[in-house]
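Section 5: illustrative case.
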């Protein structure tokens, strides 16, 4: 949701975070869960908390 809300493609996000495009795709389709390191990178990149990404909080 954060990625699409900001009009960021999977390729760009993967490049910005130093991850593979497949990783982003797998997370979005539910085939894999991101690692703790990836959650950290996503939280910093989108300026949200890890708890928000994990669905623990709404902000």
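Designed sequence:
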């Amino acid at each position: 949701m954060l990625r699409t809300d900001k009009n960021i493609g999977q390729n760009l996000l993967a490049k910005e975070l130093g991850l593979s495009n497949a990783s982003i795709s797998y997370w979005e389709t539910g085939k894999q869960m991101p690692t703790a390191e990836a959650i950290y990178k996503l939280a910093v990149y989108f300026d949200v908390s890890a708890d928000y990404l994990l669905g623990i909080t709404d902000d």
